Amino acid sequence: MQALQIIQSRFVPLSMENVDTDQIIPARFLKATTKDGFGKNLFRDWRYENNDETQPKASFVLNQPQYSGEILVAGKNFGCGSSREHAAWALQDYGFKAVVSSFFADIFKNNALNNGVLPVTVSDAYLEKVFGQGNESTLTIDLANQEIIIDATGEKERFDINLYKKTCLLNGYDDIDYLISIKPAIEEFEAQLQS
Amino acid sequence: MAKTLFDKIWDKHVVQEVQDGPSVLYIDKHFIHEVTSPQAFKGLEKRGLSVFRPQQVVATADHNVPTQNQHLPIKDELSRLQVQQLIENCKKHHIELYGLGHPFQGIVHVIGPELGITQPGMTIVCGDSHTSTHGAFGAIAFGIGTSEVEMVFASQCVLQSRPKLMRINIEGELPHGVVSKDIILYIIAQITASGATGYFVEYAGSAIRSLSMEARMTICNMSIEMGARGGMIAPDETTFAYIKGRQFAPGNGQWETKLAEWKELYSDEDAVFDKEILINASEIEPMITYGTNPGLGIGINGSIPVTDTIPDEGERKNIIKALQYMGLESGKQLLGMPVQHVFIGSCTNSRIEDLRQVAALVKGRKKNEHVQVMIVPGSQQVARQVHAEGLDKIFTEAGFEIRQAGCSACLGMNEDKIPAGEYCISTSNRNFEGRQGAGARTLLASPLTAAAAAITGVVTDVRELI
């Protein structure tokens, strides 16, 4: 996993609540056996008419050239529904490094963290402020200081992340490295369970 | 100190705590299927590791499989490759696979319980959000992502933060014609699709105690639809009677010891929950959803909310967008509205009891000529039971089509899809946009309500037919 420290970028506003993982990546694209290439089908059915890449829906934000960047900003309960990690892979493959919302579904949040896509939970009021910014506006997400900043106005908010996960992301470590390192403890635990 | 059911199981499975981080939670059973496992196997191999405890992993093919002609090679190339990859991975890593053609094959959340693999007090994970189903047995069971599947392969553990705990007490008697699917749709409509995010839910109360295991599984299954990490029900005599004698249930030598352990699995009287909710069972009607998340449900005689009167702007926008997708109008009733499809199946409602209820209702009746009805048993064992009990005759005479076991039109990964713009009353768990096929419009309901619509061709209050 790549280390993640500071993200400074414009953002794509998806002002919708309860965005479920079936929308992020529809089930028919889950037949792959690798993690690559999901970005082109990100939000597939919201992006294209009749499932046709030559017919982009002008009303959908990913098709609006004025919006771009490495940060997706979305309404509350982002990533609800299916546990498919393909949703995190699709966001990452498309080029998003962080998602900002006032509320994330649990499984998605873990999946995002496990793939170096940072879920940034902000207050409803702060989210409104971000949505209120123009398309030229940029955000800075500073993981080390756990802060998000609207660059134009300097308005800041602190976000929560547990220290373990933060350390993993800052250094590009992953959970499996950690779990393998404690295998003797796991084996000891198993022996106790048996007895 | 007084402990909840959840605490008792969780505490017993914590290997260690990560400083300022999650707990290392030991996993007793790991179910896998073809869709969320291939990348985990690849990751494991890239690290030069093999599966740490293969005997604690059980595999099946369910999401992608066709529900017709399962003896023939799968037509869709990508599906075939994915199922083939599962076969190869299981062989290489010595994992028990109940694949296509195996008498135990079926939807992962149907076969675990029916084989007696799912037992009280266990920690159970699967790369599938409906893993919460297994909580009906008094287990901590939850869905995980593929990175976490890889973690469990590598170490038989996952890193998890301890969730908050919620208890939902459902007290009183259920009205006639109201079943467990209605209870859970009612709860989600009350607390919304995100109302339990961050929580693990215990369902309790006299209405829950009176339910069969199949009915309890339906409730725990949909815990994720209100955002909960999982749902669980304390095991009791109903649970023990269900497990006893099943293929992988503890045998005679072990049964008494296990039973004594299981009987300790309940929330102590003065245990404290972060949140408690009380539901009066007698107020629940047969339920149906009108929107594009499972929280947008109403009683069968109710009306869709009048959007102008919804105070919260975000919610108003959501419902307007949902109604647009669904082709429905604010303030209107669903009752009497024609439907084109009925789907009876999925890990929510494809067990033998669900199909018995449907059969009892449709016996001697015929489906409406404008409706296509598909019944997909949850497993090969359920399918055999349907045949043994003669339910298949009832279904065939009614004009219902019986398919072979799999996830099928619940998520439309195989060819079982609902055409764009058409309505389907479905016993599955999600009514998201495009869930049953691009443009498909899903109305979630109980097997009884679905069967009633199959007969009349319109959204119907099943109580008029029983």
Tell me what the structure shows.
The complex is a heterodimer of chains A (195) and B (466). Chain A has a seven-stranded mixed β-sheet with strand order 4-3-2-1-5-6-7. Chain A has helices at residues 21-24, 44-47, 86-94, 106-113, 124-131, 163-171, 175-181, 183-194; strands at residues 6-14, 71-74, 98-101, 118-121, 138-142, 147-150, 155-158. The mean pLDDT of chain A is 95. In chain A, 31% of the residues lie in helices and 17% in strands. Chain A starts with 5 loop residues before the first strand and ends with a helix. Chain A is an alpha/beta fold and 195 residues long. Chain B has helices at 5-13, 38-46, 77-92, 108-114, 146-155, 180-191, 206-209, 213-221, 237-243, 252-262, 313-326, 352-362, 380-388, 391-398, 447-456, and strands at 14-17, 23-26, 29-32, 57-60, 96-98, 123-126, 140-143, 157-160, 164-171, 199-204, 230-232, 275-280, 287-289, 297-299, 341-344, 372-375, 401-402, 423-426, 441-444. In chain B, the strands form five sheets. In chain B, strands 5-4-3-6-7 form a five-stranded parallel β-sheet. A five-stranded parallel β-sheet of chain B has the order 17-16-15-18-19, with helices on one face. In chain B, helix 12 (352-362) crosses helix 14. The model of chain B has no long low-confidence stretch (mean pLDDT 97). The chains are: A alpha/beta (195), B alpha/beta (466). The interface between A and B is large, with 53 and 67 residues.
